Amino acid sequence: MKKIVIIVAGGRGKRMQSEIPKQFLPLYGFPILMHTIKKFFRYDNSIYIIVVLPKIQIKTWNKFCNDYKFDYKHEIVRGGITRFHSVKNGLAKISGNDLLIAIHDGVRPLVSLETIRGCFKKAESEGNAIPVIDIPESIRKIENGKNHPVDRSKHKLIQTPQVFHSDMLLKAYEQEYDSKFTDDASVVESLGFSINLVEGNKENIKITTPADLVIAESYLKSTQYYYI
Predict the structure, then answer these.
(1) What percent of the chain is modeled with pLDDT above 70?
(2) Is the model's pLDDT at 162 over the cut of 60?
(3) Which of 34, 167, 184, 195 is the most interior residue, by most CB within 10 Å?
(4) What is the chain's mean pLDDT, rounded?
(5) d(Cα 108, Cα 159) in Å, to the nearest integer?
(6) Quick one: angle between helices 113-126 and 32-43, nearest 10?
(7) Per-residue pLDDT at 227 exceeds 50
(8) CB burial class (10 A; 0-12, 13-18, 19+) of residue 56?
(9) pTM of the model
């Protein structure tokens, strides 16, 4: 089946305390978003990549690609007012049937090839797949002004890429936006589909704060991983 990935990169850098949008911040010598794009090419160099960016950031991204001589083929799409609408804009560029479509956060450059491979494999056989990891710490639930411990083994942390058969995903995104849609799995699940879980990788953090950037930089240096 043909594989497509929509990389959603709509950050503005507020929690990063930076004027530079977080997906453009330098990581190991290159903007974060370039690492993310390259990872999917390393998985499958025939994959079709769509990058969704806010309109005001497209010119800057094109300049970065020129400055860094970043020639990995991808299509740019303008983002929407929410992540839901940004994904929907990306989906509007897709044609054809019997496709596998992944949705991935632009600021998750440390996703492993094993995680990507596992998600696509499961989605091809079962219709969809999302990566998850165990919660390593104790958690408590706050309810009615009180709190109590929760069995963490019954909860998971959700990551991307979230991969779906095209028929399922396109149908789900015909719905009107709902604030309860926290990710693509929740959009699909609202139509009654069951969601399949696969093992993610703990390094696959979403870089949103300065501390996250330090962690990602340290990881790349310690593993001497060659991204670009």
Answers:
(1) 94
(2) yes
(3) 184
(4) 94
(5) 9
(6) 60
(7) no
(8) exposed
(9) 0.94
Q: What is the set of domains in the chain, with CATH numbers?
A: 2-130+158-223 (3.90.550.10)
DSSP per-residue string spanning 92-130: TT---SSEEEEEEETT-TT--HHHHHHHHHHHHHHSEEE
Residue 101 CA to chain centroid, in angstroms? Answer: 12
Q: HSE, CB side, 13 Å, CA atoms: give it for residue 126.
A: 17
What would the two tokens of residue 202 be? 């703990």
pLDDT for res 228: 45
Given this model, what pLDDT does residue 64 score? 97
Tokens matching residue 221: 């240096």
Task: For residue 109, give the amino acid letter.
Answer: P
Could you tell me which of 198, 120, 117 has the C-alpha nearest to residue 166?
Answer: 120
Tell me the C-alpha to C-alpha distance, in Å, between residue 149 and each of 38, 132, 135, 153, 157.
Answer: 41, 21, 13, 12, 17
Checking if the pLDDT of 17 tops 70, the result is: no
What is the band of 18 on the pLDDT scale with cuts at 50, 70, 90? low
